[in-house]
């Protein structure tokens, strides 16, 4: 009974009993281990920060240069596609029909001028 009273009233006695419990010792050991590992990871992250920044910069440079080349090639191919579309048999036939229609209209006008 005196021991319980001492533990509940004396902070040092309470801590001594608490820290003598096996589970508490184990938890303290786990806590210390986690703190050590967290510190190691933080140091690694700091060490890798410069390398990560450099790699991000390289990615940005590669992305912009390759993108510019790819866009230029895309626009060239797009222009070629438009040129080829205007030379397709369907487009040429349509142009011939339009030209024939205009020629027919002009011929009709000339005929009416000559007749009148």
UniProtKB/TrEMBL annotation:
Superkingdom, natural source: Eukaryota
Pfam families in UniProt: Mod_r
Ranges of residues in domain VPS37 C-terminal: 2-112
Presence of keyword Transmembrane helix: no
Keyword Protein transport: yes
Localization per record: Endosome
Similarity annotation: Belongs to the VPS37 family.
Alphabetized UniProt keyword annotations: Endosome, Protein transport, Transport
GO BP term (any one): ubiquitin-dependent protein catabolic process via the multivesicular body sorting pathway
PANTHER family (UniProt xref): VACUOLAR PROTEIN SORTING-ASSOCIATED PROTEIN 37, VACUOLAR PROTEIN SORTING-ASSOCIATED PROTEIN 37A
GO cellular component: a single term: ESCRT I complex
Name used for this protein in its record: VPS37 C-terminal domain-containing protein
Listed InterPro entries: Mod_r
